[in-house]
Amino acid sequence: MQPTQDPIKKIVIVGGGTAGWIAAATLGNIFKNSDLKIELVESEEIGIIGVGEATIPPFLAAIKSLGIDEVDFIQATQASFKWGIKFEDWRQKGEAFFHPFGSIGRSIDGHDFYQCWLKTQAEGDTTPLMAHSPEAMLSENGRFFLPFNAMNTPLANAQYALHLDSALVGQYLRRFAENLGVTRIEGKVERVECKPCGDINSVSLVSGHVLTGDFFIDCSGFQGLLIEQTLKSGYENWSEYLPCNRAVTVQTENVGPPPPYTVATARDAGWTWRIPLQHRTGNGYVYCDKYCTDQEAIDTLLSAVEGPTLTEPRVIPFVTGIRKKPWNRNCLALGLAQGFLEPLESTAIHLVSKTLALFVRMFPDNQQDPIQIDEFNRRVLLDYQEIRDFLVLHYCTTQRSDTPFWRHCASMPIPTNLQQKLAFFSVAGGLIPGVEELFQPNSWYSIFTGMGVQPQRYNPTLDALDYGKLHVSLQRGHQAIMQCVQQQPTHQAFLQQYCPAPKPSNKL
């Protein structure tokens, strides 16, 4: 018996912004030589939230997979480079630590590097873990590397991401998608019509224009126009684990060269971010309104920023969590319509790209199969839960007790999976990564170490190694990293020579 095909012939994307145009670009690229039509409707009236302006390395892989030139993209989006995130005042006020991308050290005689480092610490060595991270050392020295000169050096496997202007990303991907044949329609959705079976049939615009489709992608932001208001998918609220529920944002002029990392500073009722682009800096304060008023948050942010402000402060309320059915019937939710996790580890754009990649692997026909949909939703939920637990780790391990917010964080309930991970790690520094997890052991080691969480012991097999040789090996590794780092150009010099972005006009 031959399999029957009932292919989707038209996809309608409701909402633009970063999520909408990533979807349009990705699907437009896949179906560029087919009869499948893609239409995107957005309203310039509504605008975009624009919180996700820092990325993680997988985003660059997603851009490259579309055939987009990295240098052209960097220049068009005012992007700068990012080696990781510097966390200030999280464990205690006055302390800082770094979460780098990429590997930390190398295994020695088959032994995990972290275990080797634990052994040296137990023997009295005080060299910090980050001394063995190329990305951390490049950040500390304000450097970027020449990728073509880094081969066969300790920097060869260094991983970077980007800081970028989310509005410019949307504009860039819009041009890219339209060149692939995606149709953009300006308008505001007034009404959604469903078929008798419950699937979405069409969206009607205020102008009277009606868009019918076989499949719909909801990128309408927090309101979830299709996935929630129409299909009533439900929302899983994670406020008990992540109490912050508001953010205030503002843009400022750069003061000095942009550093190649994001800064996340713990504040009295949450944390602030600083994301340096080539010609401006993005700033924000993520906070809990139970411990801080909007005006107090605005005042805190404005007192913390460097340089004159370019925009008025903007307050954005949110509820941390995920739709119970990110894919429901003939509708897929993406971006803020799908769920929200505060941007502490810059995962928003990654979740859009990863969800799309999974959707493409399970791409449906017009006969929506509940088995396929259930498995998709299960996997997306796992992705969100993994990131949620990693974010909670930053809060629940704090030793701060100077404000009601931090006292709450130190005593709040934490998810079962995170409890198990903490308990397992506390014995001997063990971490067992799952399948397709975003945060690998080095990320967990970085946060555990930075927050002062140490295991009771190292793995006893390390005692079989000659400690003198082990100590020398680690010292040489650090010295080799530092020698290479000192030979690299500054971040600013690299940007100016290889991918300078034109200064934006003052037009609104």
TrEMBL record:
InterPro entries cross-referenced by the UniProt entry:
FAD/NAD-bd_sf (IPR036188), Flavin-dep_Halogenase_NPB (IPR050816), Flavin_halogenase (IPR006905), Trp_halogen (IPR033856)
**GO MF annotations, alphabetized:** monooxygenase activity; nucleotide binding
Q: Which key words are in the record? A: FAD, Flavoprotein, Nucleotide-binding
Location of the active site: K82
Locate the residues binding 7-chloro-L-tryptophan: K82
- The residues that hold FAD are G16, G17, T18, A19, V189, L336, I349
- Residue positions annotated to bind L-tryptophan are E345
Matching Pfam families: Trp_halogenase
> Which named protein is this?
Tryptophan halogenase
Q: Which organism is it from?
A: Paraglaciecola hydrolytica
